[in-house]
Amino acid sequence: MKKNILIVGGSSGVGQKLARHYVTDGHTVCITGRKNPNLEGARFQPLAITENTSDLIREIDQLAEDFPIVNTLIYAAGYLQRGHIDDLGDGDLQTMVNVGLLAPMMLVQRLKRSTSNPLKIMLITSSSQYTPREFEPAYCATKSGLGMLGAALVRDGEIGKVLVVAPSRINTPFWVGTDENTETMLDPEWVADQIIALSSGAFKYKYAKLFRNPARSEIVECLDNSFHQI
Ligand SMILES: NC(=O)c1ccc[n+]([C@@H]2O[C@H](COP(=O)([O-])OP(=O)(O)OC[C@H]3O[C@@H](n4cnc5c(N)ncnc54)[C@H](OP(=O)(O)O)[C@@H]3O)[C@@H](O)[C@H]2O)c1
């Protein structure tokens, strides 16, 4: 069955690899981001998430209005933010919360209302979901919260299957501007392939970690369709 797939953060990195795959498979794909990658076959919807929550509400409303029937929401937006908590300004904290938590929550809320079929949700978190890091307090907090959002949403019987994937470091533009050696990081194509494989088949909820050295995936939790509200 051909699906409408919305990939928030589909303009770059893993999100863009996923978009290419789904376009090739013949699905209708809408990607968002700040920069248009002019990805052939995919529709681009600009979405620049800042610290300004009023702007975010307006942009999310617009996105849900322009692409209302969504079978699958893939939330891949995220960015590197480093610093002790007192090095980060209020705007830095608000932007991280808006990108990491508020935008996905508001999107799921609106798409659940506008889509008659149960919404399938794929959330890309990070190893920072389960690894506390000194210099990533807000990033760790939002990734952890995003993972819990997925686990909680699956308890809603009107939501479709939910996949939460927590990758380790990936060689993408995420690291631009740092002196990190990206050559030892996971290949974004491999990460996208893992996400696609993990998302297939019948399940209600799946939480998986993607590790490197060697590259491998581990399913931490999987609930099947017989799972009922707890
Ligand atoms: N790379 C890693 O090592 C790594 C490891 C674990 C988890 N992750 C997570 O994996 C996901 C994909 O990241 P990636 O590695 O593919 O990085 P990427 O190439 O930098 O892609 C990130 C995507 O998020 C979008 N985005 C970032 N900040 C945004 C903002 N303020 N407003 C709107 N869109 C924004 C970007 O849009 P534009 O490019 O158009 O601005 C881009 O589409 C992210 O959630 C990231 O946190 C990454």
The proportion of strand residues reads: 15-25%
Q: What is the C-level CATH assignment?
A: Alpha Beta
The total beta strand count reads 8
Question: Can you list the strand order of the major beta sheet?
Answer: 3-2-1-4-5-6-7-8
From the 3D coordinates, which CATH architecture would you assign? 3-Layer(aba) Sandwich
N→C terminal distance: 31 Å
User: What helical percentage do the residues reach?
Assistant: 25-40%
Low-confidence stretches: none
User: Which overall shape is indicated by the principal axes computed on the Cα atoms?
Assistant: globular
> In terms of structural class, how would the helical and strand content be classed?
alpha/beta
**What name is given to the CATH topology?**
Rossmann fold
The set of bound ligands, ions and cofactors reads: NADP nicotinamide-adenine-dinucleotide phosphate
Instruction: Give me the CATH superfamily.
Output: NAD(P)-binding Rossmann-like Domain
How many structural domains does the protein architecture include?
Answer: 1
Work out the radius of gyration: 17 Å
Largest sheet: 8 strands, mixed
3D architecture notes:
Strands 3-2-1-4-5-6-7-8 form an 8-stranded mixed β-sheet, with helices on both faces. Helix 5 (188-199) links the parallel strand 6 and strand 7. The model has no long low-confidence stretch (mean pLDDT 96). The protein is α/β, with parallel strands linked by helices and 230 residues long. The relative contact order is 0.13. Helix 1 crosses helix 5 and helix 2 runs parallel beside helix 3. The chain has one domain: Rossmann fold (3-Layer(aba) Sandwich), CATH 3.40.50.720. The protein is built from 5 helices and 8 strands; from the N terminus they run βαββαβαβαβαββ. Residues 9, 11-15, 33-35, 47-49, 76-79, 99, 124, 126, 167, 169-170, 172-174, 185 line the site of NADP nicotinamide-adenine-dinucleotide phosphate.
